[in-house]
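Comment thread on ticket #2218

A.B. wrote:
> Attaching the input chain for the structure job we discussed in standup.
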Amino acid sequence: MRELERETSSDTSCRCLAIIGQGRLGTALTTALGDAGYSVEGPFGRCADARDADAVLLCVPDTEIAAAASLIAPGRLVGHCSGATALNVLVPHEGFSLHPLMAVAQRGAVFAGAGAAIAGSTPRALHYARGLAERLRMRPVEIADADRAAYHAAASIASNFLVTLEAAAEKLAISAGGDRELLLPLVRATVENWARLGAERALTGPVARGDEATVATQRAAVAERAPELLKIFDALVDATRDLAAVPA
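C.D. wrote:
> Ran it. Output below, let me know if you need it in another format.
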């Protein structure tokens, strides 16, 4: 993983960018890149060939990238937005990737300040991906093909799995007469502490202070109220014990 120098770049030979993929990310990037000054066409459906564009960005599911790329007219830069997929699926095109490290909900997304994993099969393609990221005011970091799966797993744990974890917490809170809003300030403070202090110093709670009696009481409550959550509770207790054993 290599963070790139932060000087704004763009490829003036690729004046018109077509976006293929009409889901959340394709729609959000079409708006954001247009606002950033690009000439953007789309978002188009997956069967578009983008003949009028100088560059194409595929915002389609990972399993559909190769098929969508095969329909693109030759001679264009072709990129994808997958975090886990290598560039070989874009062959024979000059390929690049741009993966915004940002959750895109139905209302869109603000990309400024977010990380962006980029790659390019040629220096020109990498330069173009970098320019897209910087025009969106994201932080571009070059991710090698061999590192993409680990990078994407980290992103899933940090974002997707966090939502799953909070859903489990919400379920238990509701069983005790609480709700999501009750937990929200705690979640926000925890994330801010992790960002500011790092995991070891931000850790609090009964496991961190060695209060095994309270942990046992919590486990009994989980078994009674939501036994389907016992497996995740036990796994997280074990992982938290390991983290608590690391010197802060």
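A.B. wrote:
> Thanks. Noting for the ticket: Residues 180-197 form the longest helix (18 residues).
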